[in-house]
Structure prediction request, 492 residues.
Amino acid sequence: MSEIHHTNRNRERVRAGMRWFGPEDPVTIKNIRQTPGVTNIITALHHIPAGEVWTEAEIAQRKIEVEFLPCPEIPEGLAGMELLNWHSANAASSGLVWDTAESLVFTEDIKNGSPNREKHIRNYNESLRNLGRFGVQNVVGNFMLVADWTRTGIAILPDGSRSLKYIHAAFTAFDIHLLKRHETEQGYIDDGSFSTEEVEDGRRYWERYLRDDPVRQQEIIDMLTAGLPGAQTGFTLENFRAAVRKYENMDEAELREHIAYFLDHVVPVANASGIRLCCHSDDPAFTPFLGTPRAVGGCEGYKFLLDHGCGANLCIGSLMANAKNRDITHMIREISDYGRLKGMSINEIFPHIHLRPIETDGKNFREGHHAEHREELAKVVHTFVALGWQGVFRPDHAPTSDHGAGNPGYDFIGRGYGANLILGLFEMAEITKASRTHSVEAAIAACNGDTALREKAIKAAGDAEEEYIRRKIAFIKVAFVYGEQGVHAELG
Prediction:
């Protein structure tokens, strides 16, 4: 086996990462290098079509782009590990490390059980082995069908920043009046996609905002059929409709069969390659979606993945869009307890996490500034620290400011603010955890030094602290407004 290239510094502590879409990303590696506190790059080989092998030569090139400053005099004829080793010996380090691949795509053939999945599984395993040789330790994918994360437009926040939003009536209008999966509105009610009230909301939205406005129609089509950001090209409306129809007779049980088949064939290879495979939650975590089933929208979905050795790429924003997942710290602990019963460490259960706040009324949502949601983020961070988690997080989507740059949701200024806020929260949570033992011992000393009570007292103090934080920091309540219908919805 080739030499493993691994320069991941400070492995045993929490590190901040930032997603990078490669050389075509308007955010450059230099931009990220100049973002204090960010040490890890989360990226993928977006130029390689889904289902094809990530070769050693391509992986080495991406490692070099991330981890070394440009070097003008490179010997000819070097590729793969040889080229990377030459840079290790001769080029200046960027101070960044690529150890998380997001996403090595779980293809549609894998998700729908096509006979072609066997080829894709073989290619996936070869890609995993190649990534492992180059020190990539976390690999992320998702089991969302056809569409990746879904938003319906751009919101303008009170400070003028631009944020991604999801308006359910707009999505309903798109599905019924543009995508036209069924011939009648009743078809959408019958297949469980929408309630009668939601169908009526979608009709009103269509008539008021879209029916006579081809420009707005195209905008929402482009937004909802865009595919993976920075990766796949978007669908045409006709292709999108055809892709959705491949799943019209599939239920969640069948989808889970396909997921289990895939994981049972790739997780052992990932483990042998030194890689933790994990899965992103459905985004948003609603089911059904475009008439298709979804399998990873809450605790039960993650437990199913853990049953097959796949970790949780926990994304609090996508999960909390569903009102059932509002108590996110309870979810984190429930998933953690389940994984530990299966003999997994906390970092195996949560190889990589996304910390993204949203403002939601339980159906509609928009993404907000991390700093305006620091109380809720503090509660989540405290929970991860109490569980002993140490790994790579990324602040995920953030509003775009006038002085920033990046694709919608990926402004490097907004994400940089979020990364540093969250790093500070982790440091304070670690300090609180470290000081707990000393406080307990001081209390015992004041009570005649009964050390037999030490372990019990430490646990009681930790439990009391967790309960205090849970009650003290409720789910953050920010007024949610979306202008299309002029509705102001207070969060409950």
In short: The longest helix spans residues 412-446.
